[in-house]
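Handoff note, outgoing to incoming analyst
You'll be picking up this chain. Sequence as last confirmed:
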Amino acid sequence: MKATRQLIGTIGVALLLVSSAGTQAARKPRIVILATGGTIAGAAPSQTEAGYQSGAVGVDILIEAVPDLKNIAEVTGEQIASIGSQDMNDEVWLKLANRVNELLSNRNVDGIAITHGTDTLEETAYFLHLVVKSDKPVVMTGSMRPSTAMSADGPLNIYNAVAIAADPRSRGRGVLVTVDDDIHSAHDVVKSHTTDVGTFSSGEPGLIGATLFGSNVWYRSPAQIHTKDSEMSIEDVKVLPRVDIIYAHANMSPDMITSAAQNGAIGLVIAGVGDGNMTAPALEAVKKVVARGVVVVRSSRTNGGIIRRNIEVKDDEIGTVASMELNPAKARVLLQLALMKTQDVGKIQEYFNDY
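Most recent structure output, in case you need it:
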């Protein structure tokens, strides 16, 4: 009788273990959606009106608009901000990044999806790419049509973002951006059209992958340093350094460079013509502000190619930094973070080479 009870007890324990294993295996990934506003949360008076109010729709409504999310993940949402991304700022960046790091440190969170306006999405994505301290997936998305529009593109983009964040193969690829069935690296993605739903491009580096109704195909991983391997940190940071972008053009005045430095910019990015060039008077102004300790990075307004050192502009003589693959907007982000670590131009150039 005793042996029978022991046998029954053993079988019971075994059944419990099998049941527990089955429950764990069946558990859906737990994904948190962080909403910041943007067109994806916009509302217009009619389905066909171009004008709309950004950030008018809350995260709970965005989630309710995609009921099939429950089939791929356990989804919760938080509202970080409710702004158009033209108003994105350092305060929101820091709040968002700190919350991302806090959530990803929780063993019960498997990944994060972020909804964001498209105007500055590439900058926020790259900022997070540099300061997130986890290899868990972080996937950003947005839309080119407001939530009330005919054929709104937001719901499917949200679905895809959650599916990518829930995909274990997303781990270790840095911050990703998905819009219009494409998967981009935050390092490479740029907005390339004012209104087209296919506005985002990764140029010469190409896509990280592609998605179709949440089914993902992967092509590559970023070559640059990012996320948990990045030296960049926002721990205890309240304010980011001021870095301005100066747009180069024919007959460019040097006054813009001088004025930016005089008004508090400790770093400048020149969105140069062609291979990061500028007028001779502008270059003379650059020499003067560099001599006063302002760090100047040469980038290009072309949004393509690589700005290498000492080609047409002699960076070693002037003391400027070459942006490598980074466009002006992203060069500004990296320079802001680099300046919190050092003002040594040689070290900052290393960051641009590696990040």
